[in-house]
Amino acid sequence: AMREGKVARTAGSGSAVVERGAIRCEATVVDLGPKMPNATGICFLNHMIDQLVSHGQLGIGVQLSIGGVPCEPEVDYALQGAAARAATPEALAHARPHDQTIFELVGEALGAALRGAAADALSHAPATLGASRFCAPLDEAVTEAVVDLRAASHFAFSLEPYGTIPPAGREWIGLYRTAYTRLLWQRLHGALGGRMELLKLRGANAHHIVEATFKA
Fold first, then answer.
1. Which residue in 55, 43, 54, 40 sits closest to 82, CA to CA?
2. Per the omega criterion (within 30 degrees of 0), is the bond before 166 cis?
3. pLDDT band at 87, cuts 50/70/90?
4. d(CA 90, CA 165)
């Protein structure tokens, strides 16, 4: 069962801890804060969180631990996964037993921390404040994000397929499983609340599609 720890905040900042079994994720968000290390156990996911930092002007720190052992920023949690990568997708998935839980907990912790960081600004925002919409290009890819934290809960996500080669899209970007991108944003939205829509306008490269989404 998942256990969510205390969600703490001060003006312009928030933090949250979520746990499931042996896996624990702690997230901190500071508006206009300094860059912090991110260690999710999946290096490409760390890189994607860095896009939220640079494009959202947020200080974000995410620390994941497995069995009480903290992950390191530039180290994949399943070192044997790199060897399995040269084999079949099934072998790679088997070598990485915690991927789904990591995406879920990172989304939940980050969403709760973002909610805390935004609370003070929302309390002072004008009543006429509506949705924010941004389109982010990255080479051939363009994605659109719409966020309204005062709206009723609504989530829409349309990024698939992740690229055009193969025709069904890529399953993996390195050791990052593309199908879990939706899962992360679903869990983040569930903790953050409001309206969130993430839409691919165009894109042929899986890496560019995913990265443009985090930037937007």
1. 43
2. yes
3. low
4. 19
| C-beta separation of 23 from 66 below 8 A | yes
Q: What is the DSSP track for 39-69?
A: E-S-HHHHHHHHHHHHHHTEEEEEEEEETTE
What is the C-alpha end-to-end distance of the chain, expressed in Å?
32
Q: 5 with 17: CB under 8 angstroms?
A: yes
State whether residue 176 is helix, strand or coil. strand
Q: Which residue has the higher pLDDT, 127 or 90?
A: 127
Q: Which residues of 114-123 are buried (b: 16+ CB within 10 A; e: fewer)?
A: bbbbbebeee
Per-residue confidence band for 122, with pLDDT thresholds at 50, 70 and 90: confident
Q: How far from the centroid of its chain's Cα atoms is residue 137's Cα?
A: 18
Find, among 50, 29, 30, the residue nearest to 38 by Cα.
50
Cα separation of 144 and 100, whole Å? 25
pLDDT at res. 16: 97
- Give the three-state DSSP class for 134: strand
What domains are there in the chain, each with its CATH number?
A: 2-123+133-215 (3.30.230.40)
SS3 state at 195: strand
